[in-house]
Each structure stands twice: as structure tokens, then as C-alpha cells.
Amino acid sequence: MRLTFTIQRFNPETDQQPHREDYRLDIGRGMTVLEALIRIKNELDGRLALRYSCRSAICGSCAMHINGTEKLACRTSIRKELERHGRISIEPLPNLPVIKDLVVDMSPFWEKIRAVTPWLTPETHPTKRYGSSGQLRLLPESYQFHNVDACIMCGACVAACTSHEVSRGFLGPAALAKSARFVADPREPAGAKQARLTALQEADGIWDCTRCNMCVQVCPKDVQPMEAIIRLRRSSLRHGLTSAEGARHITGFVDLVRHEGRLNEALMPLKVLGFNLRRVLDVMPLGLRMWLKGKVPLPFGHTIPGIEQVRAIFAAARRRAPRV
């Protein structure tokens, strides 16, 4: 069968803007997008630039934007893409600088990985980590990394991240998932965990994730970075890190429901913004529109019937909560 492949091309030495080029190619049964690209380069256009290595979904080198979604070209079936989209359109990963054609500069990605210190913090007392034989202490059999250690650093999650699209300073799903792996590691010293979590409270950290779930959808190894970010947020709250607006939103929401049995939209902004007058003035127009629509209850209204049962649920949850 003969198909048309639409590929985004860009040569910084000759092109002002990226453009698309079509290539017609005879394909065989079971062929992947990467196999087709290699044939296009070998048989039709030797100038085409792409990155690949293992061809087995292990190295992550061939991550691309295929038919509107970030995928590994080596594991993307042409037949399935045709059945789903009726075409084959290939572009480089978004949110990363393009070097040439389908090759992107991964330097910003690796800078974010290095920024979270992706290794265990050296122990001041090595005997706590090493046994008499000098070997690294093994993790207990019951311990799990929630699959975050399966990350192959392909960059697909960063390319799909809506927060990273808006703010390039955002650490991104891969780096935060990597950080979660070390925060959860029982061999990491308690002080180092606290330091890691404190650093992640800053702007572009864990509270800037919008939970759009795109990183989970595109991850080829089911790492589920968004779930790792949620675990980091929970761990931060358990460690008493509640000064960030995102943390105050969670604690304020829970506090209101525990005391009133429902969300009180009139008090919620004060829970999140505190006494920051400038931020309060910023949300006043929204509050006024909500009030005109009847969406804002009285600030100190009555609690709902059955509030004692609600509070009992919170009390039971607190007793079962894991200790830091």
C-alpha cells in the first residue's frame, strides 16, 4: 500500500519558518512510523533529520508529535494511526527548541532533571546506609516506586504539559516524578526529604501543575507523572509545608468542609489568599459576579444538618493518616 507521510521540516540554515513536506512511500504490513521515516531518509530524502537508537521503546530517543499526540515512533503502528486518523502527520516534540526537522534540543529537559537532584543524598553517617559488608542497603520487598523508576526520559510528558507550555520555568512532569522517587525512598535522610519538599514549594514547583492529565495519557511507560506530583503534594502537607497558595487551597477547602459540611465560597478566597490585600482585590470582580449569580453564601452561614457525622469522618481519616 502506498501512503503519504506529511512531515514538518525546518533547517535553521536555510528556513525562516517550519514548513510541511509530503512523501509517498510503499509500506508493508506491521510497519512502524520509525521504520517508515528511516526508509524515507534512506530512499527519498537523505537530508531528513531524526533521532532514534534502540528501536525497542527503551531509549526514548524517537519521541515525536504524531497525529497530534506525543508518541514513540518505534512503537507507533502505521495501520493503527490510519484507522484512527486517516493520515500520518509527523512533527517534532512541542515545548522544546527544534534543532532540525524532527530533532529537538533536550537541554532544557535535562536541566530540569538536574535541578531536582536526581540521586540519593549522601548520608552523614554511612553505616546507616551501608551494612558491615559495605553494600548499599536493599529496599524492603513491600516497598514500591509506583513505577516512576520506569521513566525512559523521552520528554513526551514535557512536550504535552499544558503548564510547561504557559511557563517554561515549570519543572515539568518528568523532573517532578523523579523527585517523588527520592522523596519516597526510605534510604533518603529525613532532613534531605524536608529540603527537597521545601524547594518544590517555590514557583514552577509542584503547585503549578494544573492536573490536566496529559502527561499520563502520553507516557509510553505508564509512569503516571501527575499521580507522582499528587503524592508530592500530600507528602508536603504531612511535613507541614502549607504556606504556598496551592497548599492553602487544599487545607482551606478541607477546613471549611470539616466545620460547615460544605464549601463556603465567601470564605474560601480568604483561606487561600490570607491577608494579601492586592491578591484579594484581584479576585473581587470574580466574587462580585458570583454573588450576583447567587453562588456566594453568607460568610458565616449555618452548618448543614448532620454535621457531626461529617466531622466524624474527618476524625477517622485523621486517625488513619500515616505519620511523617
From TrEMBL:
Reaction(s) catalysed by this chain's protein: a menaquinone + succinate = a menaquinol + fumarate
Pfam families, per database record: Fer2_3, Fer4_8
Superkingdom: Bacteria
Key words, A-Z: 2Fe-2S, 3Fe-4S, 4Fe-4S, Iron, Iron-sulfur, Metal-binding, Oxidoreductase, Tricarboxylic acid cycle
EC number(s) on file: 1.3.5.1
Cofactor requirements of the protein: [4Fe-4S] cluster; [2Fe-2S] cluster; [3Fe-4S] cluster
Domain 2Fe-2S ferredoxin-type: 1-96
Transmembrane segments: none
Cofactor note: Binds 1 [4Fe-4S] cluster. Binds 1 [2Fe-2S] cluster.
One term of GO molecular function: succinate dehydrogenase (quinone) activity
Family recorded in the similarity comment: Belongs to the succinate dehydrogenase/fumarate reductase iron-sulfur protein family.
Name of the protein in question: Fumarate reductase iron-sulfur subunit
